[in-house]
Amino acid sequence: MAGITCYGTYIPRWRLARSAIGEALGVPTRGGTRAVASYDEDTTSLGVEAARHALVGVAAPDTLVFATSAPAYQDKTNATAIHAALSLPTSVAAYDMVGSSRSAVGALAGALDGCRDDRSTLVVLSDVRTGLAGGADESDGGDGAAALGCGASGVLADFVAKASATSELLDRWREPGGQTSRVWEERFGESVYVPLAVEAASEACKQADVDIGEIAHIVVVGPHARSNRAAAKALGVHPKIIIDDLGSSIGNTGCAHLGVLLADALDRAEPHDHILVVSIGDGADAMLFTATDLLPDYRKDRPAVRLAARPSGKLPVDYANFLTWRGMLRREPPRRPDPPRPAAPPAHRNERWKFGFQGSGCVACGTRHLPPTRVCQSCAAADEMEPVPFADVQATITTFTVDRLAYSMNPPAVVVVIDFDGGGRFQCELTDVDVTEVRIGDRVEMTFRRLFTADGVHNYFWKARPVAARTEGAD
Asked: Which ranges are annotated Basic and acidic residues under compositional bias (predicted)?
């Protein structure tokens, strides 16, 4: 039987307190925080981090599918950058499913339906939620990503049944090129979505011959909290088994939220527990899973999703910087030339280095080099190199400098020289850090980021971040 074979999530370390929005604009806001993608993150880089976590100890998939409502590129496949960052074989196909939050459930359902002949698919769900200042999308939204492996072997949760109920309604929309979405009054969406959610959930349970009272974990996810709550109540189940939507700590992560909450349910489930996922948006979809005996062992060394939602260890971002990172507030740029647009030919020629962060190792003497080189700097052997992946290797800060003149969306910039475990030295930027806490000897790991965007071209590469940022601020 096909089902979920691996999963991982990524929630950025930065948090915006909703009270800061209210204080700046003089509007009422509810409590809690929302997760904020850093100035150097977008849906592609968030998706890479979630996928890296999901694929630890797991074979490469046969297909990669990327779903988001906020793609970094249009008229170009974003999944190929994720493919390159993961150093997947060229035989692995990569596709986008973008445009709305329902793209997520469509990608997941399609991947599960397509698990034939032991072929596997990695579904990457990612979103950055931006709304007008003072609006519900801004305060209630959140940024994050999830990755779910789908296959027929090593299944953690069997895919038992699914049902859909589709209806055309204009309750949320954004014109092509628009920065923010517009939303109709939620009471209208609630009146339409609740019956559709009940219809889809009832049909899925009927297909599986499972009474809804037998389900141990229920996830209700959608862009409108009011409709989600009403649908959960209409299902007639005990509130204790409805999975907390994490809205108070990270917000609603749009396309990613289905994967984030399903991962949270898998973190909690015991073998043979039923998990019902109800996704609302332009209709309703219900998917029923049953946890297998493999799930507890899989979770042993993997931090739970809830760890990413905890407030401890997070970096606060003020409202002005949040608006700047989102492109909603234009501020005086540094007196420096604009960065040049990255060129396509050299980026393609150096794909393994630029996206996959692969260095080289000398076969003759063992010296490792970053960037990769043809001639060994130690023994001068020529063309005796083998590729060495560094993306998942931790390193130690040897020295650093705090640059208050270099251009940065979050000044000052911190530049570090790091020594990788096993050899290899590299200079790069340090991100997701409180500049006052950087010390020589700190442990760091690599993270895939967007360095800058010039003339509509995103320049992706790798930065270092404190190891604590992974254990406290990501899964």
From this structure: 330-339
Phi then psi for residue 363, to 5 deg, are: -70, -30
Residue 436 pLDDT > 80: yes
Could you give the count of Cα atoms lying within 13 Å of 209 in the half-sphere of its Cβ?
0
Angle between helical axes of 102-113 and 257-268 (0-180°, round to 10): 60
Measured over the CA atoms of residue 80, residue 83, residue 87 and residue 91, the dihedral's sign is negative
Indicate where the chain has its CATH 3.40.47.10 domain(s): 3-325
For the residues of 319-367, what is the DSSP string, one character each?
HHHHHHHTTSS--PPPSSPPPPPPPHHHHHHTHHHHTT-EEEEETTT--
CA 300 to chain centre: 22
Contact 161, 208 (CB under 8 A): yes
Please check whether residue 265 is in contact with residue 290, taking contact to mean a CB–CB distance below 8 angstroms: no
pLDDT of 364 over the 70 cut: yes
Handedness of CA 222, 432, 83, 116 (dihedral sign): negative
- In the β-sheet with 385-389, what is the strand arrangement from edge to edge? 368-369, 358-362, 385-389
CATH architecture assignment, domain 3-325: 3-Layer(aba) Sandwich (3.40)
Burial label for 226, CB within 10 Å (0-12, 13-18, 19+), is middle
Give the 3-state secondary structure of residue 15: strand
Q: How many angstroms separate the first and last alpha carbons of the chain?
A: 28
Structure tokens at 391: 């993306």
Banded model confidence at residue 200, pLDDT cuts 50, 70, 90: very high
DSSP string, 356-385: T-EEEEETTT--EESS--SB-TTT--BS-E
Q: What rounded mean pLDDT belongs to the chain? A: 91
How far apart CA 419 and CA 374 sit, in angstroms, is: 21
List the one residue out of 91, 65, 63 whose CA is nearest residue 77: 65
Q: What is the pLDDT of residue 472?
A: 43
Helix axis angle for 186-208 and 225-234, nearest 10°, is 40
Is the pLDDT at 343 greater than 50? The verdict is yes
Distance CA 351, CA 221 (A): 37
Say which range, 76-85, 181-190, 250-259, 340-349, has the weakest mean pLDDT. 181-190
DSSP conformation letters of 79-91: HHHHHHHTT--TT
Amino acid letter at 133? A
| Helical spans, DSSP H, in 55-185 | 79-85, 102-113, 136-140
Q: In the predicted model, is pLDDT for residue 209 greater than 80? A: yes
For the chain, how many helices (H) and strands (E)? Answer: 14, 22
C-alpha–C-alpha distance, residues 1 and 24, integer Å: 53
- State mean pLDDT over 305-331: 85
Is the pTM of the predicted complex or chain greater than 0.90?
yes
